[in-house]
Amino acid sequence: MQSFRTGYISIVGRPNVGKSTLLNRLVQQKLSIVSRKPQTTRWSLHGIKTTKNAQIIYIDTPGLQKNPKLALNRYMNKEVINSLTYIDAILFVIEAKKWTELDENVLATLKKVSKNRTILVINKIDKLKDKNEMLSFISMINDKTGLTEIMPVSAKKNIALGKLENLIVKKLPVATAIYPEEQITDRGERFFAAEFIREKLISRLNKEIPYRLSITIDEFKSKKTHVDIHATIWVEKKGQKSIVIGTEGNVLKAAGKAAREDLEKLYNKKINLKTWVKVKSNWADSENALKQLGFSD
Ligand SMILES: Nc1nc2c(ncn2[C@@H]2O[C@H](COP(=O)(O)OP(=O)(O)OP(=O)(O)O)[C@@H](O)[C@H]2O)c(=O)[nH]1
Ligand SMILES: [Mg+2]
Questions:
Q1: Which site in 69, 89, 169, 190 is 20 to 30 Å from 247, CA atoms measured?
Q2: From the CA of 17, which ligand is nearest?
Q3: What tens digit of pLDDT does each residue of 195-229 get?
Q4: Is 73 in the pocket of ligand 1 (CB under 6 A)?
């Protein structure tokens, strides 16, 4: 009989390469929020996939930034570094046809940890024209990184993810499962409520506002037939507050409705969601405000 394997796999890369999309696909459940805008993920999150032969605990991490100035971004980088302390392998995610200074920065960080535990995942291969384009990119990336385990995939179009999973399982030590079979994440209900609201606002807002939003959940009451959720959306300035609310409340209403629908799918229960928008000046660059909003070491 095959031995059961269990371990931790961190998903690391620069912002916007598709790390969260990949985690959601690998665990076959929407857990991590995704957007077209970079710097979407702020917190690490475990997505757990248990099969007959293995339990893979994937860790989605924020996009690693180079020399971040804002306290929030320094916190996000710390989340990435912390995730690298207890893992069995790393998925270093890059984007097809793109190799940037930020990818170099991620590589330099990973080299300090351990190169031979790294699988280089080239995501978004659906954007490539043909096989030749892929082969020349792989050869260039192999020269640049010295990494030999390279896996081209598309998280969005579900290409080669089974192959990737097989490769990952081989990296895990023989061990019994850490989480119960049915558990799919380490995060609690309030976390997802806050994150899904943030996702729906990010996609409806522009410029700097997506980066200046933080959500706290003030009430989460699970009843027999439904869940009551009260959420506060924190912004940095008064002007941002009226934009988040929108004309006659249209932005907030639409975001709330979309978040509710996602949460109803996750919890299989009706959701009553109430939201408030409040101002906390300069929260993203204040260590104190960050702590109050739940960002802690
Ligand atoms: N064409 C294509 N787009 C993809 C693929 N995977 C992800 N995307 C898109 O890339 C964008 C970024 O995806 P995310 O999953 O949020 O990226 P991320 O690396 O988690 O980003 P941060 O959390 O900001 O670091 C979204 O618009 C996704 O739909 C893919 O395989 N193909
Ligand atoms: Mg992400």
A1: 190
A2: 1
A3: 999 999 999 999 999 999 999 999 999 999 999 99
A4: no
Please give the Cα distance from 292 to 1 (Å, whole number).
Answer: 50
Q: Is 273 helix (H, G, I), strand (E, B) or coil?
A: strand
Q: How far apart are CA 251 and CA 242, in angstroms?
A: 10
Would you place residue 1 in the very low, low, confident or very high pLDDT band (cuts 50, 70, 90)? low
Is CATH 3.40.50.300 correct for 5-171?
yes
Domain with CATH 3.30.300.20 in the chain: 189-292
Can you give the pLDDT at residue 266?
87
- Residues 59 and 91 sit within 8 Å (Cβ to Cβ): no
Whether 72 contacts 42, CB under 8 Å: yes
Q: Which CATH architecture best describes the domain 189-292?
A: 2-Layer Sandwich (3.30)
Pocket of ligand 1 contains residue 145 by CB under 6 Å: no
Residue 77, H or E segment: helix 71-83
